[in-house]
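Re: the request from the purification team.
They wanted to know what the chain is likely to look like in 3D before they choose a buffer screen. I agreed to run a prediction and write the result into the notebook, where they can find it.
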Amino acid sequence: QVQLVESGGGSVQTGGSLRLSCLVSGQYNTRCMGWFRQTSSDRKGVATIYTGRDIIYYVADSLKGRFTISQDNAKNMLYLQMSNLKPEDTAMYYCAASDLAACLTLQQSNYNYWGQGTQVTVSS
């Protein structure tokens, strides 16, 4: 079982930056550790780190250049660095983990474990 606890959300102005953190605990052997975000309409994948034969860092195409995903295994932490934030980045951000091989597709249905979320609000 995996427990995920997010932190670091808040309110910023357009162009600002935030770093989200996710503390990972419990017994797990995950393939992916990632971030999703949810607006009123749906939950979409933001970025993920796939650990298989290779380690693959994937960020959704629309967010490349502004968002970076990283991890610190010694601290059991997953991070999402967000820069040049825009009002459309406003959402609840979730940390998620998956032990499924298909997790690199960043579809929420392929993720087994979820945190409670942290709110990010970007004002113009």
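For the purification team: The two ends are 40 Å apart (CA to CA).
Please add any questions underneath this entry.
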